[in-house]
């Protein structure tokens, strides 16, 4: 409340701030209407096994096709949705949509969904995940929830409880944007992650920056001693692939393999994978 008053007060003195605040409020309102009007859409980006090259899963990435503004990037609207609290509702839509989509695939590939801090902090979240798994019929083992350091730093104990609850449902938890926070390393030791996603800013530098290469290398060593698989995001070049392969990073995701694409385009990829891995339940 105090914060709100403060930012309103600023409006009277700073017209540019006023514009920014108004702009944000307009977008926040547009977003609610946009969700009802079906303007949001998920795109999917493939994740590949480093050594076999096989597609192992997809990450769902949110897109907003605004009637006037065209395609609005998540970097522009996710922070606004977080500030207004609308992210909880929007995130629920994302989870439902992604699970329904993955459940329709011929092949039991995994589906990774980004979870915002406020979703994770919502006490109803594990129950919601369970409900969505049931209604979609998705095998929980195929669902991977991507959380970031900010999602767990505020209340360690509670986050740990939530993560344990989620894992008891059979879903996997990935730490996203690894290396960008202040205490990524201690997070790794304190929380039972099933996967680490190295942020693309470090991947980008592996061939050119000794510092990035050192961060990626040491992350891979630590993760391997903890027996946590690592995925590198933002893989764009041969040099990236070669470095990551030599250092033993098991999964790769990035423009080198494919851009995030709409659902219609991944269907071909999913259906072109010939066999179901042995011992896995066939998904209708
Ligand atoms: P993220 O979860 O780290 O997702 C990876 C981002 O990197 C995506 O950006 C993806 O398009 C981009 N990317 C993938 N490969 C490459 C590459 O080779 N090079 C470069 N330069 N970029 C690459 P996008 O889709 O714009 O999403 C940005 C961020 O917005 C995501 O980062 C995530 O934090 C957030 N976001 C996206 N969808 C959702 C969602 O449904 N819920 C929530 N809470 N956040 C989301
Ligand atoms: Mg992610
Ligand atoms: Mg990421
Ligand atoms: Mg990232």
UniProtKB/TrEMBL annotation:
Q: Which residues form the EAL domain?
A: 24-274
Superkingdom classification of source: Bacteria
Q: In its UniProt entry, what is this protein called?
A: Bifunctional diguanylate cyclase/phosphodiesterase
Organism from which the protein derives: Pseudorhizobium endolithicum
Organism lineage reads as: Bacteria, Pseudomonadati, Pseudomonadota, Alphaproteobacteria, Hyphomicrobiales
């Amino acid at each position: 409340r105090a914060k709100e008053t403060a930012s309103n007060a600023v409006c009277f003195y700073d017209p540019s701030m006023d514009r920014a605040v108004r702009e944000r409020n307009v977008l926040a309102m547009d977003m609610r209407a946009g969700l009802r009007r079906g303007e949001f859409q998920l795109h999917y980006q493939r994740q590949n096994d480093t050594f076999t090259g096989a597609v192992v899963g997809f990450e769902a990435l949110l897109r907003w096709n605004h009637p006037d503004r065209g395609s609005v990037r998540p970097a522009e609207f996710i922070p606004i949705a977080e500030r207004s609290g609308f992210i909880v509702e929007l995130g629920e839509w994302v989870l439902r949509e992604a699970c329904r989509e993955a459940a329709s695939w011929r092949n039991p590939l995994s589906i990774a969904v980004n979870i915002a801090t406020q979703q994770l902090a919502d006490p109803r979240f594990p129950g919601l995940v369970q409900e969505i798994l049931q209604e979609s019929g998705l095998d929980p083992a195929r669902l991977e929830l991507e959380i970031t350091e900010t999602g767990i730093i505020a209340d360690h104990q509670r986050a740990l409880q939530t993560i344990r609850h989620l894992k008891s449902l059979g879903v996997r938890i990935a730490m996203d944007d690894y290396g960008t926070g202040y205490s990524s390393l201690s997070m790794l030791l304190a929380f039972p992650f099933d996967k680490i996603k190295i942020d693309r800013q470090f991947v980008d530098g592996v061939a050119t920056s000794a510092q990035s290469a050192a961060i990626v290398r040491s992350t891979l060593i630590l993760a391997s001693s903890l027996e946590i698989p690592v995925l590198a995001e933002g893989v764009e070049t041969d040099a990236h692939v070669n470095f990551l392969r030599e250092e033993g990073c098991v999964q790769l995701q990035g423009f080198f393999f494919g851009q995030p694409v709409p659902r219609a385009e991944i269907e071909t990829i999913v259906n072109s994978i010939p066999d179901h891995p042995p011992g896995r339940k066939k998904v209708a």
